[in-house]
Amino acid sequence: MLPREEILRLLSSLGVDLPKKTKLHDAELDNRLSKALDGAQYLSRVVATLPFDPAVYPSWFRDKSNKPILEAIARHNVGEATLIDASERKGINDPFPLYTNAFMDLRQTLMSIGNACDKGMVPFVLQDKGEMSGICMRVLEVRKFDDHTPILMLVFQHDLKDNMSPGSFAWISSYVSSSSGSPLVAITATVQEQHLLLRILNNNKKRLSPSYKPKRAPTESSFSLSFLIPIGPLGAQDMAKFNANNGCSICGEPAKQKCSRCGAVRYCDAVCQKEDWKNHRPLCKAWQGAKWQGVKFILVDQHVPGLYSLRISRYDNVQHSDTRMRMECAKDNQGPPENTHGATPFIVKIQVNSSQALGPAHTIMRSDARHDGSNILIYDQRRTIDVMVLRAPEASEEENAPFDAVTALVREKGDRGIKTFCWAIRTGEWTLDICLDRLPEWQKW
Hints:
This protein is α+β, with helices and mostly antiparallel strands. The chain contains 13 helices and 14 strands.
């Protein structure tokens, strides 16, 4: 098991940002990292039942019409695609520079492996710049799960600089001295990236059927057999699940008390509250006497009975057509969105339905001038909450007062009277409190 701090850093590279002083046990953090990596492989799509036998799938190379492995193995979501497009228009060559995020590095390494496989099965050595840690690896064959999902069957062995195994030494020597035209491909991979790759390989090898025994070289007898499938960003549901925070703004444990001054931030005990005071003090003073308005919401996809709209999240995976899957799911009864913020305030973007809205929001809210201001769209940065508040035409002014109060805030303080950012607190499965008079700084999402 990796050190606790290292697990938290690796989780963060996947977009799972737990409180630094979370009281979750080491074993739970370790398990969450494994589950998050399973999610990043979209593992349940391919390995639906265990044990997994890749031999039931055809060779990727049997059908000459298959796309290159590099193209099939690449994964990105709507948010990343938008960033790539914006970077290209600004003349930025690489919006995801190497060696700054272990998970992004891993995904780029997998594409490098896929590109090499397109040119022939070659052996790889992944090691960090200081050559302190390395992974010897060779792809044995590539199976085809579907047109978008190659399965890379491989053998691997991990070594440290001060403790290199005889098997790895013999394996490397066999290729260095070989005249077969299959030279070793060297890939620079940080130690953190290797941790993620090893976690995936070691977990996946346990999933293989004992009956699957591909041919390997004599020098690979000590190597472990495993597989890799495309790795991409976590989807919206996984982001919500793995970022789950039970309440305390410091450690994530269930909140039992709140700040007596502002009442907006909650803690599990006095120790965490005292520890957070230096950071919380500026907001605490700003929130003292703040006016909070409670509203009831419904899911975006259920705002009109019998009519289901498609809400594209920045975390929807493009290659898997998750957007179509979301539209199909919208026809089913859905429960409330998961509460990933606990009782801690968080920033939401609020947009009032308007025929003057620009960009995708105009299509999403489907408004014309006759229905301006009839509903409000509310969502957080991760889209873990993505809901609507409706104004009921048949209801009384008193019943519509919460909706009107939030609308008035956006009209007065928002950009073009259409949208603004606010502080919010989940108060129930279908309720939310909006702060009407203490606005956060303008956000860039």
